[in-house]
Design a protein that fits this description.
By secondary structure, this protein is of the alpha+beta class. 56% of the residues lie in helices and 13% in strands. Strands 3-4-9-6-8-7 form a 6-stranded mixed beta barrel. A hairpin with a 2-residue loop joins β3 and β4. The longest helix has 42 residues.
Length: 577
Amino acid sequence: MADHSRPGKRHRGSEERHGGSEERDRERRSVPWIVRALVRLYPADFRREFGREVEQEALATLAEAPRRAPPDRVGWGAVRVWGKIVRDLSLSAGREHWDTWVGDVRGWEMGSVLRDVRRVGRGLVRTPGFTLVVLLTLGLGIGATTSIFSVVHGVLLAPLPYPDQERIVSISEQMHDAEGQNLSVSYVNGQDWKDGQSTLDAIALVRGGAVALNGPDGAQQVSALFADAEYFEVFGAEAVRGRLFDVSENRVPGGHSVAVLTHDAWARHFGSDPDVVGGSIDLGGLPFTVLGVLSESYRDPFGGANGAGNDLIIPAMMAGQVDFRGDDVVTVRRWRTFGAVGKVRVGVSIEAADADLKRVAAQLESVDAVNRGMTASVRPFNEVATTNLRGPALTLLGGALVLLVIACFNVANLLLVRGAAREHELALQFALGAGRGRLFRLLAVESAVLAVLGGALGVALASITLPTLLGLIPNQLPPTADVRINLPVLVGALGVSLLAGLVFGLVPAVRQGGRDLRPALSGAGRSGGSRRGERVRNGLVVFEMATATVLLAASAVLVRGFQEGRAADSGFVTENV
């Protein structure tokens, strides 16, 4: 098939308006339907100018094929000719569409695009009402999506704020017949794990509790984390004043009255008094020596009883001071009241560490009857900490994206209405020599400018509303969550803005760029275009109503799922942690 070039473009409806003879209709009906379908792939203007010529050339090629093929290969020759026709017409149609919508690549140079941006800016300033409505619609949609994405990023995507965070694991006990259901850990079993395993650099047993801090102004409840000395190694905690306790200060049940303050507790309860370090404080009527203060950068991985973080860390052997079972909680194997964390050795996989601890747990089954049917499980710490939030957070993000899609289609409707009012302007540019690719580029630049401005407004709204959003769920996020508008969130907002521009700008740009603009110069042909435009706008409204209904139903499911997710098993005892 010969390659066809197009001298110009016009609307496909022009052929119908000029009419055609009955002989031409008969000729069209004689064309195979495959050829007619392939010709329909061309742009409307090209079909009007060269459609019959392409069909006639295809018919001539088909008629010539039997005469060229050997008698014994006529059937195979016809198949090859049909394949050539399909290939040539498809490729030619693709080239014509490229020339129609993109045009000369030089037209997309930076200078030309910047001129279009300035022109679009002047046009938006001249229509402040339209501009304000579009920017508010986009800003609200992008702002909501950015706020939710900042939460999802801080909870699920951002790395933990600890050295070698990918090596930190959560360890739990499980029953053989209920694997996947995590149980708290016996402190005695945890010590045996330390002695029997060979794949972790450190294992620490931890549990939370509330103690009374007695001072000159009376007693106040503070949150304490009872932990092994290895806890500091697992999470890379360091003291900014004094020192941390070591393994020698965590050997005798109830025999190590020492504590390490968090930086926040040191400031809140003691006014950052340096003399507190090395001094004594009253906890529940017992004197405790303050060994040191953790650095300000330390982030509590568990939180406290109020969700704001623990105030101090005390050796695990002192846990009996806040438990009605006394020292039995750290000396009797059957009491499973601790959580466990660890750090796998460099070069060791979490799967290998899991198999290693399962081996040790199997050996402990013969040590005490309370361990029969029990095993151990090792999982990434971040995965365990966010298990209950992953589903609700992703569902919430999906709802925000649906809301953004509704906003985009609202803007698309506004652009379609505005495009109908600008038909005369676009037709005049077309008459002065602007190709359809040039008009398409202008409309695309307008969509991009609106998307970027809407994205900037959305980020500003997200920055304002994010603290309010976090205030509504102060105790629902893990303490390690770093929720803020940072560079990854800004990059995500930019991507969402450009995607939104593509969604709401594509329909109007393709529609306006593909219309027959000549009748707009004389005011003719408005009724047909208006009817087509009305059908497009009605379709967008139907889609918006459908997505809004889905969003409303999903919101109800989300609330229910969030409540159930918070009540699900988290892998360790959460009371007072």
